[in-house]
Each structure stands twice: as C-alpha cells, then as structure tokens.
C-alpha cells in the first residue's frame, strides 16, 4: 500500500470522527478535558460531592458533564434537575 493511500485513509478517518462528534446533541458544561483520557484525572478520590458542587457553581449549571476516556458521565447537583428525563 502506498504512503499516499495510507495518508488519505487516515485523513478520511479523522474527518469522519470530527463529523460524527459534531452531529451529537450538545452536552451540559463541565471541566476542560484532555485528549484520550478526558477528565479521568479530574475526578477526586474522596469527597467527590464537594468538587461537583464547586464545578456546579463555576459553570452555573445543576448538571455537569465529564468525559471518562470516551464515556460520558453526567452529575446532577440540583433538586430542580433530578426529574429530568423521568
């Protein structure tokens, strides 16, 4: 396989991922994520609720989104939001 064919295939793959990601519905706000690992290193090992409450105030939202190595995690920090989707 030639180098140009491999480069073209790689470019098409990246463009397809970009289009797929852009076509999803918007997610709630949350901390900036790192490539590949997302927010894995942002999640505290103890007293998680304190960090989630602080993020809730920072992003002015009762719902926070975290990316855990490609998997979405939604944190609900408000009683007003607990019945959404029920």
UniProtKB/TrEMBL annotation:
<keyword id="KW-0479">Metal-binding</keyword>
<protein>
    <recommendedName>
        <fullName>Cytochrome P450</fullName>
    </recommendedName>
</protein>
<keyword id="KW-0560">Oxidoreductase</keyword>
<dbReference type="GO" id="GO:0004497">
    <property type="term" value="F:monooxygenase activity"/>
</dbReference>
<comment type="similarity">
    <text>Belongs to the cytochrome P450 family.</text>
</comment>
<dbReference type="InterPro" id="IPR050364">
    <property type="entry name" value="Cytochrome_P450_fung"/>
</dbReference>
<dbReference type="GO" id="GO:0020037">
    <property type="term" value="F:heme binding"/>
</dbReference>
<dbReference type="GO" id="GO:0016705">
    <property type="term" value="F:oxidoreductase activity, acting on paired donors, with incorporation or reduction of molecular oxygen"/>
</dbReference>
<dbReference type="GO" id="GO:0005506">
    <property type="term" value="F:iron ion binding"/>
</dbReference>
<keyword id="KW-0349">Heme</keyword>
<keyword id="KW-0503">Monooxygenase</keyword>
<keyword id="KW-0408">Iron</keyword>
<dbReference type="InterPro" id="IPR036396">
    <property type="entry name" value="Cyt_P450_sf"/>
</dbReference>
């Amino acid at each position: 396989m030639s180098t140009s064919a491999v480069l073209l295939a790689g470019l098409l793959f990246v463009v397809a991922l970009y289009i797929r990601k852009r076509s999803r519905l918007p997610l709630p706000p949350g901390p900036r994520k790192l490539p590949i690992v997302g927010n894995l290193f942002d999640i505290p090992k103890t007293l998680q609720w304190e960090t989630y409450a602080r993020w809730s105030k920072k992003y002015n939202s009762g719902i926070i989104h975290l990316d855990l190595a490609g998997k979405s995690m939604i944190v609900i920090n408000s009683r007003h939001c607990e019945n959404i989707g029920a």
